Amino acid sequence: MSCLKKTFIIIKLLFILSFNSAFAQDPNKVIAAQVNDHIISAKDVLMALEKLPSKIKEQPLPSLYPNIVNELINQHLIAQQAYKENLDKNKKVLSEINKRKEQIMAKYWLNSYLSQKLDKKNLKNFYNNYLKSFKSSKEYNASHILVKEEKEALNIIKKLNNKASFSDLAKEFSVGPSGKTGGKLGWFSSGQMVKEFEKATFILNKGQITKEPVKTKFGFHIIKLNDVRISQPKNFTEIEPEIINMIKKKSLVNLEKEIKKNQKIIINKFEDVAKKVNN
Hints:
Helix content is 56%, strand content 14%. It is of the alpha+beta class. The protein folds into two domains: 3-117, no CATH class; 138-230, Chitinase A, domain 3 (Roll). The strands form two sheets. The protein has a four-stranded antiparallel β-sheet, with helices on both faces. A two-stranded antiparallel ribbon has the order 1-2. Strand 5 (214-216) and strand 6 form a beta hairpin. Helix 2 crosses helix 4 (61-84). The chain is elongated, with a radius of gyration of 28 Å. The protein starts with a helix and ends with a helix.
């Protein structure tokens, strides 16, 4: 992977991690700790948190906070020792600093670039185009009970024929994730479910349950059609997060093409690079 490509991926990740949250106060101005005249801000803590492994980040922030702050204090004090030994003038250190400098500058420039692309006018234009291109279709609301064996599915259908509660049976027997909610799958349209499931669902009348188990790669389903409707376009507030993500992705793809135009980029084969590194 070229340095340009790697940097581009890194700054995209940094953007997502660093600029998607809204705060009551600017984290840069909130003091987490102070060492002499050196301030460690809440933003420093958040940035350090994002660098931690995923499993550690799953822990509650209050439990991680003391260790993060302590490490930032140690980092500052160790850096002061490095300054005393003039490491800030060392060629290797300066090379690393320049690389980090490029990453930081790229991250902030990218943030500004995407902010411009996400102004109200662009969001509204995107939404208006969505309304113009929207085509209504049938949507289905169904519940199901998923089991592994056909015999078990047939026994459940017998219980349903004897007026047993579909929701209660789903909670008791379904091995699918929707079992906890009584088998509810919510609304879906054609193409969102596996073919066998859709074929069986679409021929049902409202309130009807499949008379035979429906076999798919997941197991055997008993399906109940709860309702049918004609889809309607989502309102702006409902679809705004999707619009933002789509504009971001499109903007980043276009940007990558633009910045690489007329550039001389050489990507060496992994085998060649690995061979030189290991020799």
